[in-house]
Amino acid sequence: MAALWCVVPAAGRGTRVGGDLPKQYLPLAGRPLILHTLERLAAHPLIAGLMVVLGGKDEHWPGIGQLADKPVLTTLGGAERCDSVLAGLRALPAEVADEAFVLVHDAARPCVRQADIARLIERAVPAGGGLLGAPLRDTLKRAGSDGRSHTTEPRDHRWRAFTPQMFRRGELSAALLAAAVAGVTVSDEAMAMEHAGFAPLLVEGAEDNIKVTTAADFALAEFLLPRTT
Ligand code: CTP
Ligand code: MG
Questions:
Q1: Residue 110 belongs to what domain range?
Q2: Is residue 139 part of a domain?
Q3: How far is the CA of 150 from the centre of ligand 1 (A)?
Q4: In terms of DSSP H, where are the helices of the chain?
């Protein structure tokens, strides 16, 4: 199995965390959140290099060119996460073939486990592409605008989607472009692939692969970091 490149969208502003500094640069266990994420990815033997997608006027990127002897490249993202991922795919080195699988992993998920990255690659390569996720465990309610629960939705067959997600460079680029042309803002790569007629494989991963989203998530991520290697 040849090692794969990983696109890391990090061009968001972290509005739900608040504050001036985008969340990927806020300290987690004393170091910028994004560094933890990048180090985990670079440490994985099946990852060949990282393409970090940065926001415009980003003055905080530490200018890393290499991690664990692997290249770390950067490019400029866009208004939505899907725009940033497409920009990252386009900026990959020419040596990454259209048929090659590429991982996409949120900068905001520093607790991803090495074993889950390996399992995703092992299962989703023969399936043509897939993503980490987990079956829904809680009861799901549909809320009305009155803030009351009006119905209970079936839980079976419903999964939460995580990252990494892994697809072929060419197919994913075409799917993201097609969604953009159709005016569909896709919230993850799998949604773009579904829109293009694919059925990505769901690979169950640890639920502690949290996306740091609110200020309170920093304490949780700090607790999880040393426990999720
Ligand atoms: N992201 C990106 N480009 C965007 C929006 C988001 O690269 N235009 C990245 C974020 O930096 C993050 C990941 O996509 O690593 C997941 O997005 P999310 O958790 O929503 O981060 P933000 O968009 O920064 O946060 P918020 O939605 O609260 O503003
Ligand atoms: Mg966002």
A1: 4-129+161-227
A2: no
A3: 31
A4: 33-43, 81-90, 114-127, 169-181, 189-195, 217-224
